[in-house]
Amino acid sequence: MKKSLPIRVLDLGSAALRSEASLSHAVHQIYREWRAGYGVVALGASADDLLKRAEQLGLPPQQGAASALLSLALERSGIPFRSLDFRQTTDLLDEPHPGIVVVSGFDRPAAVIAREIGGTCLALNDPAHRSKTPLRVALLGCGTVGGGVLERLLARPDLFRVTGVAVRDLGRAERSWVPRHLLVRDPLALVEREADAVVELFGGIEPARSLITRALDLGRPVVTANKALLAEEIGPLSRLAARRGVFLRCSASVGGALPALEAVRRAALAGRIEAISGVLNGTCNYVLDRIGAGLSLDEAVAAAQEAGFAEADPLLDLDGSDAAQKLALLAREAFGTALDWRRIPRRGLAGLDRSVLDAVARRGRAVRLVASCERTAAGLRASVQPLEVPLDHPFARIRGADNALRIEHRSGETADLTARGAGRWPTTEAVLADLYDLLEERSAAAPNFVPAAEEVLA
């Protein structure tokens, strides 16, 4: 059977058991291969590896230990996966879209399994041995996501060196766990230091726009999750990046761990896209779930804030503005057209309560805040609004802060993708993926390395 997606079989061996850093890197590689469009089959550790490891530690063999650790790490990062016993791997032959599969205790060489399911076998590809000097990273912002990014960067001093951390509230940061010697009062001064990449996680329009503009003008690659700024300035900033010969990377700006921009960009290259739609705001999806469980809107928003899924001021989430900004970025990739997100008709969650959701449920449907854009005879038609969707629809099946994306081709083919769309670790994973891409581009390519999807937004 011909696969719709090529498959990467990652032989992690016992490497994922060695340390937290090794486990995190295994997650990074799985995510980047999936983000690049591959189905991924991750082999946690062979039966022989686990027996040897248990013998060394004086413990009984735990056949699923490596796979269990990997599964927990993937779950924390909001990356969708499923687990299979090694005896079920041949079932993948009948699946055109395997997604990410974690296999425990395999009894055959990874290369044999790869041949059986029509995939390519890769080993854990840690760039440390190829990186002669760490990538110097200037970090702007150290809130929920910035703190996660900083933690991951500091865990790999062989790969990354943080040149400084600029924060809005220096006093608060000094009372936190952030190393004091890294804290910088003046973000512009940090941008103007020598660095190999600038990561902007302040959010908002200013000072983010000025700082990113200055970084690009100095020839520094920029990684950002700032959808509010990009929805307004992606064109000028991309043109500046192109003139300076550097990348502007923004994987984390749409979808958290959902690689929405990459998926749409890849689909547009493969053929004409007729429509895109999605649940693009994890906060709203979480709030709808909590309302359905009996909370009021205010109580559900408070729960989302406590869980780290909502900002202190959640207005842009709740009124549909955040989803409209993300939709504008996706439409640019899908249709080559710049949409003014402010002109996208949008209706948020106002007026939705338990009674409304219960009535919809009795009709065998669920309410989701759906952002959509489609081609029509009169041009593109875009909207953000609560919609009723059948319970068997992918949008209805997602829970909590998950996001979902549907891409409809002119050929009639439909592609669906889901992943965690909000929270510290899912967004951190997307930022780190962009930084790993920069690291790989600077290093000599590994024999089996296939670069992730192109990130330049021209």
Number of helices: 17
**Oligomer state of the chains in this structure:** single chain
- Rg, rounded, reads 22 Å
Main β-sheet description: 6 strands, parallel
Strand order of the largest sheet: 8-7-6-9-10-11
State the helical fraction: 25-40%
Poorly predicted tracts of residues: 59-63, 444-458
Give me the CATH architecture of the largest domain, please: 2-Layer Sandwich
Shape: globular
Distance between the termini: 37 Å
The CATH homologous superfamily of the largest domain corresponds to Dihydrodipicolinate Reductase, domain 2
Strand content: 15-25%
What does the average pLDDT come to? 87
Please give the domain count. 3
Task: Supply the CATH class of the largest domain.
Answer: Alpha Beta
Provide tags for this entry.
458 residues, alpha/beta, Carbamate kinase, Rossmann fold, Dihydrodipicolinate Reductase, domain 2, six-stranded parallel beta sheet, five-stranded parallel beta sheet, 20% strand, globular
